[in-house]
């Protein structure tokens, strides 16, 4: 009986994953075609319009995650969520095991910026969301550092996944140096977030319909804010050297915690 129940549960989760994907795509289209265009007409101030768009995205993600949890596709727990809600003028860097990582983090960061791949601008389900939220695009090299500096100075948080793509289980983690370079050259502190999951789901080499044997449980641990001055002194160091040292620190922090399941500091659980 237990084997039959497990099989039925797995089939249910696979079916509901498909339903939730459809819901996510439909929600992105509705936001882009209706709500964001309405904001464009009604709200003339660009900064206020961008803020409302980002808050709308965050609220939509919270609703989506409520549905996903309710139908049993997955569960999640966020340790230190209040730290991210209250964060200002800081880079937030996280590992990237799953397609849903950004959704979970943005759901508790109501006005966060994000560094995204330019290829996503050609995705009809999310391109309107990216443009309305005015996210930073990773291939705009000349404009990226000045734009990042301006946004950090005005109190924005910028969410970055420094691996550049989703992790591959069993393979050595590598980080691109973009997050470290932005931190050093823009004078920004960082906050490290480690994401773990009990099952491999929506990863680099998995299909959306590959439901794992048991319901996945995501755990997100939000670490303490890391002051940049621990790694960089403009009077005595070259920025490139400081960025390499900082990148090694981030790699060690993310790799050790995500692989060994060690929590980041002490924080109360919330979700």
UniProtKB/TrEMBL annotation:
GO terms for molecular function: 1-acylglycerol-3-phosphate O-acyltransferase activity. Pfam families: Acyltransferase. GO terms for biological process: phosphatidic acid biosynthetic process. Keywords: Acyltransferase, Membrane, Transferase, Transmembrane, Transmembrane helix. Residues 90-200 form the Phospholipid/glycerol acyltransferase domain. The chain crosses the membrane at residues 12-43. Coiled coil: none annotated. It comes from the Bacteria. Pathway: Lipid metabolism. PANTHER family: 1-ACYL-SN-GLYCEROL-3-PHOSPHATE ACYLTRANSFERASE (PTHR10434), PHOSPHOLIPID_GLYCEROL ACYLTRANSFERASE DOMAIN-CONTAINING PROTEIN (PTHR10434:SF66). This is 1-acyl-sn-glycerol-3-phosphate acyltransferase. The lineage of its organism: Bacteria, Pseudomonadati, Pseudomonadota, Gammaproteobacteria, Enterobacterales.
């Amino acid at each position: 009986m237990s084997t039959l129940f497990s099989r039925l549960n797995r089939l249910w989760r696979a079916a509901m994953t498909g339903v939730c994907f459809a819901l996510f795509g439909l929600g992105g289209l509705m936001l882009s075609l209706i709500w964001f265009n309405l904001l464009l007409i009604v709200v003339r101030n660009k900064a206020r319009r961008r803020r409302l768009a980002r808050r709308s995205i965050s609220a939509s993600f919270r609703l989506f995650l409520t549905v996903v949890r309710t139908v049993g596709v997955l569960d999640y727990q966020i340790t230190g969520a209040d730290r991210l809600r209250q964060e200002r003028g800081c880079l937030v860097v996280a590992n990237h095991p799953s397609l849903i990582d950004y959704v979970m983090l943005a759901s508790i960061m109501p006005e966060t910026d994000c560094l995204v791949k330019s290829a996503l601008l050609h995705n009809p389900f999310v391109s309107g969301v990216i443009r309305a939220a005015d996210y930073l695009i990773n291939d705009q090299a000349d404009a990226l550092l000045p734009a990042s500096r301006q946004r950090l100075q005005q109190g924005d948080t910028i969410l970055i996944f420094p691996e550049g793509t989703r992790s591959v289980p069993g393979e050595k983690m590598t980080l691109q140096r973009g997050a470290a370079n932005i931190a050093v050259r823009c004078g920004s502190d960082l906050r490290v977030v480690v994401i773990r999951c009990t099952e491999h789901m929506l990863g680099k080499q998995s299909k959306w319909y590959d439901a794992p044997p048991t319901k996945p449980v995501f755990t997100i641990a939000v670490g303490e804010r890391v002051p940049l001055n621990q790694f960089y002194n403009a009077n005595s160091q070259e920025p490139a050297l400081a960025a390499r040292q900082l990148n090694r620190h981030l790699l060690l922090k993310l790799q050790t915690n995500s692989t060994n399941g060690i929590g980041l500091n002490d924080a109360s659980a919330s979700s």
